[in-house]
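Why do we bother with holo predictions? Because pocket geometry can differ from the apo form. Keep that in mind while you read this record for zinc ion.
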Amino acid sequence: MGMSVNEHDTLRHDPECIFCRIIAGQIPSERVHEDDRVIAFRDLHPQAPVHVLVVPRDHSRDVTELAADPQLLAHVTTVAGKVASELADGDFRLIFNTGAGAGQTVFHVHAHVLAGGKLAEGEL
Ligand code: 5GP
Ligand code: ZN
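The structure, written out:
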């Protein structure tokens, strides 16, 4: 139970968190980008022709916690744009569900990148 800090760096890892497990390679995912700070993989239940999650490797709860590291928050945005350009025409919608009442179901911060078609305004 609880969070551990990797002895080789300062990345927080929660063994009970599904996205920490995906980052660790313990659960398969279709990765479309990875670097030292974030990974991006396709959502299991896509809501658009391109639906990718950009996920910081460091476990934090939501975008308000992520905002404590403005460079990392900016990097998530940059990677979202890169993914939308590589997999679609470059236009995209970026969504951070924050809190259960707003539809957040995985409490490891992630940006939804929706692209590749006319996007309806609606629930995610
Ligand atoms: P939230 O509702 O927290 O904003 O978004 C969580 C997203 O993660 C959902 O869109 C859901 O489909 C996706 N998801 C949940 N579990 C997995 C998984 O094991 N693999 C992948 N690729 N996506 C997942
Ligand atoms: Zn996590």
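The first helix runs from residue 18 to 23.
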